[in-house]
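User: I'm writing a short report section on ligand binding and want a predicted complex to refer to. Could you take this sequence and adenosine-5'-triphosphate and write out the structure as tokens? A short remark afterwards would be nice.
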Amino acid sequence: MEKIVSLCKRRGFIYPGSEIYGGLKGTWDYGPLGGELKFNLKQEWWKTMVKERDDVVGFSGSILMNSKVWEGSGHMQNFTDPLVECKICHQRFRTDQEDAIKEHEKEHGKKASWTEPKRFNLLVEAKLGVVEGEKNTTYLRGEITQGVHVNFKNILNSSRLKIPFGVAQIGKAFRNEITPGNFTYRSVEFEQMELQYYVKPDEKESMKQYDYFKKIRMDWYKNLGIKKENLRFREHKKDELAHYARAAWDIEYKTPFAAPDSEASWKELEGIHHRGDWDLLRHQQFSGQDMNYFDENPLISGKEKFIPWVIETSGGIDRAILFFLIDAYCEEAERTILKLHPKLAPYKVAVFPLLKNKPDLVKKADGIYKELKKYFNVAWDDRGNIGKRYFSQDEIGTPFCITVDFETLENNTITVRDRDSMKQTRIKIEEIKSYINDKLT
Ligand code: ATP
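Assistant: Sure. The structure tokens for the complex follow:
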């Protein structure tokens, strides 16, 4: 982990938030390459979950919402973690983080003692208004889910969607986490990618759709290159189920956060939840607005009305990025490589003139660079020797490097060097675009 954290900072993936002022715990900033990686990841998610489907539309809700939303959703009452405080140094832990508690007890030896567990609400407060004393307390959204459900009727009335259909969203959420940590894994500000899929209130049919989305989501991570053996499903135990959940399975990733292969090394990446009618029914009760869906059912004369059930897929963008980075990181002989899927890699290709003091080579390489930039994110490097340039691109995951040499000037061919196999292939300049495109589809 130390090596990954250090690479992230050195090469511009992820920096500690507000670093020059001593930081702000649980916040992180994405640098030039991290920003690209994040953008690519979101695009891939949007493509799979929205663009390629007929039954899903996109949505982008606001972070600040009327505080009654959180009463309706149950978060004011139930969005809590049990917390214990060390009586010696006042450090706080979630009671379910048994490993961290044991570790802490070792530090204090026999003297270690804890306060009684106390429930602690995770919603982050914000004050709205300009006049002191008249400010309204509201909350930064603790999950992006509720924006979709409170707009259920707006979305229905402004589209021609018929059940089953889904609403997809990507956006920031905020939580007063008791113990932020493990790099970006648990942050106070993070991004989520979620699908809320509305289905008929039918036990058998909804479970079929539930199983289908479990598979879709697991396949998504595998298709983007996470190693199969590092992913698994875990079903929530009865006492672990969130207040809204009828069924819940997590997609988990085998992290290096705990002893290798220990149960504690498996950490949540995405949750697939069967939310039943919890959200719409509660918002109907709390807002007084009718949340029924009217179905034209050919088998029954007239219309059928019901409160739909919801299947949710809820993933963390920051966790996904972290796990993609961990999974892609490897060291081989003298080089460090990020074996990121080309679709996720910040740069798809790097262009090098063999020598920087040969104007003909530089001009030719510059032409290729400018042409490719119309289609891809392209890096340029003319420093030092070619070997060093390759290694520098390997470390940030660039899948292809193109070298323009003297032969290029003679016959318009270049060498393409593959990041993972290090194999070099000579191809015609006009073939580069389709060569790279093939790897991106
Ligand atoms: P955990 O048990 O780890 O606190 P959770 O079960 O509360 O997570 P959900 O409410 O299901 O998480 O949120 C959906 C997804 O949002 C999670 O699978 C995770 O990827 C992401 N997520 C949740 N909390 C955080 C956080 N504090 N920092 C980064 N990502 C988070």
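A remark for your report: The chain has three domains: 2-64+125-328, 80-121, 347-440. The mean pLDDT is 93.
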